[in-house]
Design a protein that fits this description.
Oligomer: single chain
CATH topology: Rossmann fold
Structural class: alpha/beta
Shape: globular
Radius of gyration: 16 Å
Order of helices and strands: EHEHEHEHEHHHEEH
């Protein structure tokens, strides 16, 4: 993985005219880590690795993302072993994204996840955030917004039912990263490992 440069605001664009990027349609991908092992009770929660099922589902998600053309410019990932191994299973990328492991994303609440997204440079078109429940599920619900959730279709109904390990939510974000808020995302796609079994994504 290629680490993101340590410039202010995760590569924040300070150049004149950077405000123009606020009007670009952006893509946000929320990915929960794949299934992890609980075989050894002596291992701390942060250090639990993926189990065999998790590695298989992450490999299936990698194929689905390639087929659907989901290629992030920046990856924000929790520093837990299971999230880092999920990211590893998605590699190699056709175009290697900038990767920023963040301690603050470990078991983060929605407000912390939103704060991480607010710090993304406005020149970035697509972000993949790899994290944990319940915060990731709550963030996805917040971004979709109560009105869309109440009157939504199959993606919204699937999201309302839960955000299982290895699941991916794709949002369109209209506006700036720094101004992202409740109801600020349009849910385009929600994929779970169970959905990918035998799925035809062509």
């Amino acid at each position: 993985m290629r680490a993101a440069p340590k410039t202010g605001g995760r590569g924040e664009d300070k150049t004149p005219g950077a405000w123009q990027h606020a009007f670009v349609m952006r893509q946000l991908l929320l990915l929960r880590h794949a299934k992890s092992s609980r075989d050894d009770p002596a291992i701390a929660d942060r250090d639990r690795p993926l189990n065999a099922r998790g590695r298989r589902s992450a490999a299936s998600m990698r194929l689905a993302m390639r087929t659907l053309g989901l290629a992030p410019d920046v990856v924000l990932v929790s520093t837990a072993i299971r999230t880092l191994e999920t990211l590893d299973a998605l590699e190699p990328w056709d175009d290697t994204p900038l990767v920023e492991p963040m301690d603050s994303l470990y078991l983060a609440e929605p407000i912390q996840l939103m704060a991480a997204l607010h710090g993304v440079a406005e020149t970035v078109r697509s972000v993949l955030l790899i994290g944990h429940n319940p915060g990731l599920h709550d963030l996805a619900l917040d971004l979709t917004g109560p009105r869309a959730m109440a009157g939504g279709g199959p993606n919204e109904r699937a999201l309302a039912a839960g955000f299982p390990t290895g699941a991916l939510a794709e949002f369109v974000v209209a506006g700036s990263w720094w101004n992202l808020r409740e109801g600020g995302g349009r849910l385009l796609r929600f994929l779970t490992p169970a959905m990918l079994e035998g799925a035809d994504l062509s």
